[in-house]
Every structure is written in structure tokens, then in C-alpha cells.
């Protein structure tokens, strides 16, 4: 009898240890909307719980069965090979090399079995987005305290502020998808969606996030695109309206400043005015840079892209080596406004520059694999989560055009945590048609 109780106790402890990683991962999406240290602490606790949870046979089987394993292995091998062909920059190589291994952090999360924890994680993500929207509203009326925990909501802080905008755009798109699937609480879902979208548009001041939200809405609308005449007409009409809008904006007077911080502090503009002005600035910057090749402080990305592309053209096949972008760019851009930039703000250019054409193809292969998995999920037992994978992958691919989505851990780990929610437990066997 005593031995029987001991076995029950041990079994209970084993169950508790096995459930802890999923419980922590379900909470991680909530932490993304606050100081980055909370996210990193959560990741550390998750990895410790995962390492102690046992069940290694099933976990390794799920990792081996992941469609992402082969492309991630290829990227890592390529980064090792390229590292042997080029000199290692002092103080840059170790950090730069680690960035190409970031996707490995995804596999412990993918090794977890599917379960109710995934829906809980989605709800926590939505809760975080609602709280973030509330903090933006509180700041807009001047009552949010200027303390470290809320600083990203009070001051436009660059990458962290951009991430908040991207997260809210993704959350709004996921909410729209969940609203379409669920048959209950329609009014509550509609109000929550509108609450988050209004904060995204009016308060985040992020051009990338606002455009991403429109793109994801288009993805949801055309998810079953079958080349019907009305769908083609709607797409053509959208493109025509977009072209006409850009042409009209190009004729407008230039805003007094294009810097979000100056608009907020010196001119007391609202979030909506800042987004509108920054949109006008973007069109003007592209037009002016095409004519004069002169960039402004807010539009220095154009100079970054041009200079980086010129350096890529010098060694397009094997790149310039891991970690060599920063020292080579500072030498290339001496005296230019973008001289002090630490990333090219474009992952496609960064991978091509450092790893050569193979690096660019490896990155695209990983993301296209995610889209292929999402397509296969549609006709499997995971059909409800297919659009979540599609939307997040499109968000990563789009945001990588303007930001260091994988180069910067602030973006990369947040995206991988979100990716793990719908993809955990999705093996090749589970992707077979129902």
C-alpha cells in the first residue's frame, strides 16, 4: 500500500512537470507587451521547465517530424561554412553568428503536444493587446505614469515601440479570424477588435504596423482566392486606389517635421496625425531620394538600402561574412546621415550581404515552409490554426522589409513565441488530410 501511494505521488509529480512547460508558454504571449526583460525571463523559465519535464522520446520525435527542421539546419550549416571563408570582426562575430541560430529556440516549443493550452495562449495574447491598447489610451490623455514598465507607451522608443505596433496588428488580425470561427459573443468580440484597432491606428505611431494590419485584413478576405471576377476586380480596384492615393500624397506640402518624437513633443500632434504625417513623409522621401539620392534623418532607410545593395553587388554569391555588415557599412557610409546605424533595417539585405545568395534563399525557404505548413493545416485536424500561421508568417516577411525581425532579439523571440502557439504539435503525420 505504501509503495502504491509512492507511485501515485511520483506519477502526479511527473504530470505536473510535463504540464509546466505548456502553462508557461501559454503565459508568454502576455509578456510581449511589456518590458523585454519579462519576455526573456519567461523564456528562461520555459526552457528550464522543458528540460526537467522528461518525455524525451515524444519531444524528439515531434522535433524530427517538424517541417522547419531541415531548412533551419541548412541555415545554421551555411552560417558555419561562410564563417570559415571570411575574417571574423572583433566584438561583432559572436553576437552576429548567434542571430543565425535564433530559430533553434523554436523547437523546444514545437516539441510540445497540442492541447487546450494553445487556446489559452491565444486568449492571453488578446488580453495583452487589450491592456496595451488601454495603456496607449491612458497615455493619450496624459495620465500614464512615466516609469520604466510603461516607457514604451509614453515615449516612442524605436524597436520596442515598433514591436508593440506589430503585435497589435497581428493580434487584431487573429481576433478577426477568431471572430469568424466562433459562433458566440459576437458583440463582445467586435468591441474588443475595434478597441485594439483604434489604438493601433490612433496611438502607436507605426507606419509599418498600420500597413501590416491592412495587409493581414486582405489576407483574411482573400484566404480562399479562386480568381473569381469580383475578387480580381476588388484587387485591381485596391491597387488603383493605392496608386492614385500615392500620387495625390506626393503633391501635398511636406510636413513641418518627419520625426515622430518631434511631432509629439514639439507640436503636440495626436497619434493619428503622426501616422498620417509619417505616411506623407514616406512618399516624399522616396520621391526625393529617387531624384537627388539625399536622405533625411527619418528617411535614412533608403540610404541604408542603397549602400547595402551596392556592397552586396561586390560579393553576391558568398557574401562578406558573418558580423561584417556593421564595420563595412560604417566605412562605406562615412559622412552620410546613416553612418551610425547598426543594422540595415532589412533582413533580406542583411542575410544576402553576410551569407551571400544562399543566405537569402535559406531565409526565404524557412518562411515559405511556414506558409506550406499553413496550407497543409487547412485540410488537417489543425485547420482552425492554419490562418494564424499564415498571418504571422506574412507579418514576419513584410516587417523584415523595414526592420531587423531576426537580427534583433526583441523582434525575433516575440515572433517565435507567437509562431509556436499554432504550430506546436503539428507533425507530418498530423498534417495528413482528414
Automatic annotation (TrEMBL):
Key words of the record: Ligase, Membrane, Transmembrane, Transmembrane helix
Transmembrane regions listed in the UniProt entry: 24-53, 65-87, 93-113, 125-142, 162-179, 186-202, 208-225, 232-250, 349-374, 386-405, 411-431
Entry's localization field: Membrane
Membrane-related topology note: Multi-pass membrane protein
Domain annotation O-antigen ligase-related: ranges: 197-364
Highest rank taxon of the organism: Bacteria
GO MF annotations, alphabetized: ligase activity
Principal cellular location given in the protein's record: membrane
UniProt-listed PANTHER family: LIPOPOLYSACCHARIDE BIOSYNTHESIS PROTEIN PA4999-RELATED (PTHR37422:SF13), TEICHURONIC ACID BIOSYNTHESIS PROTEIN TUAE (PTHR37422)
Protein's UniProt name: O-antigen ligase family protein
Species of origin: Undibacterium amnicola
Amino acid at each position: 500500500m505504501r509503495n502504491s501511494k509512492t507511485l501515485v505521488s511520483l506519477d502526479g509529480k511527473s504530470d505536473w512537470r510535463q504540464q509546466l512547460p505548456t502553462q508557461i508558454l501559454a503565459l508568454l504571449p502576455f509578456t510581449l507587451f511589456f518590458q523585454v526583460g519579462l519576455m526573456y525571463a519567461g523564456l528562461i523559465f520555459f526552457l528550464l521547465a522543458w528540460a526537467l519535464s522528461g518525455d524525451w522520446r515524444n519531444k524528439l520525435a515531434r522535433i524530427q517530424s517538424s517541417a522547419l527542421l531541415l531548412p533551419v539546419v541548412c541555415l545554421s550549416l551555411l552560417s558555419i561554412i561562410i564563417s570559415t571563408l571570411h575574417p571574423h570582426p572583433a566584438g561583432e562575430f559572436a553576437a552576429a553568428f548567434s542571430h543565425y541560430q535564433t530559430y533553434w529556440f523554436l523547437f523546444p516549443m514545437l516539441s510540445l503536444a497540442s492541447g487546450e493550452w494553445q487556446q489559452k495562449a491565444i486568449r492571453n495574447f488578446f488580453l495583452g493587446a487589450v491592456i496595451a491598447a488601454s495603456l496607449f489610451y491612458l497615455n493619450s490623455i496624459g495620465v500614464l505614469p512615466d516609469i520604466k514598465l510603461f516607457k514604451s507607451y509614453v515615449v516612442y522608443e524605436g524597436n520596442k515601440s515598433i514591436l508593440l505596433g506589430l503585435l497589435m496588428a497581428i493580434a487584431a488580425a487573429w481576433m478577426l479570424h477568431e471572430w469568424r470561427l466562433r459562433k458566440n459573443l459576437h458583440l463582445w468580440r467586435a468591441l474588443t477588435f475595434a478597441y485594439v484597432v483604434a489604438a493601433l491606428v490612433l496611438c502607436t505611431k507605426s507606419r509599418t504596423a498600420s500597413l501590416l494590419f491592412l495587409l493581414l485584413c486582405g489576407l483574411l478576405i482573400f484566404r480562399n482566392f479562386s480568381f473569381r471576377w469580383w475578387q480580381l476586380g476588388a484587387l485591381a480596384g485596391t491597387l488603383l486606389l493605392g496608386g492614385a492615393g500615392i500620387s495625390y500624397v506626393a503633391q501635398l506640402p511636406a510636413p513641418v517635421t518627419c520625426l515622430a518624437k518631434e511631432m509629439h513633443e514639439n507640436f503636440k500632434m495626436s497619434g493619428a496625425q503622426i501616422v498620417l504625417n509619417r505616411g506623407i513623409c514616406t512618399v516624399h522621401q522616396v520621391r526625393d531620394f529617387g531624384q537627388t539620392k539625399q536622405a533625411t534623418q527619418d528617411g535614412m532607410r533608403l540610404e541604408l538600402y542603397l549602400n547595402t545593395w551596392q556592397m552586396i553587388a561586390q560579393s553576391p554569391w558568398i557574401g562578406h561574412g558573418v558580423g561584417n555588415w556593421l564595420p563595412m557599412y560604417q566605412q562605406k557610409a562615412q559622412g552620410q546621415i546613416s553612418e551610425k546605424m547598426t543594422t540595415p533595417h532589412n533582413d533580406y539585405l542583411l542575410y544576402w550581404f553576410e551569407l551571400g545568395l544562399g543566405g537569402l534563399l535559406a531565409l526565404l525557404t524557412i518562411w515559405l515552409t511556414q506558409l506550406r505548413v499553413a496550407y497543409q493545416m487547412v485540410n488537417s485536424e489543425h485547420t482552425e490554426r492554419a490562418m494564424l500561421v499564415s498571418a504571422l508568417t506574412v507579418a514576419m516577411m513584410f516587417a523584415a522589409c523595414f526592420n531587423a525581425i531576426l537580427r534583433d532579439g526583441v523582434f525575433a523571440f516575440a515572433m517565435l513565441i507567437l509562431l509556436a502557439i499554432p504550430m506546436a504539435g503539428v507533425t507530418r503525420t498530423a498534417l495528413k488530410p482528414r
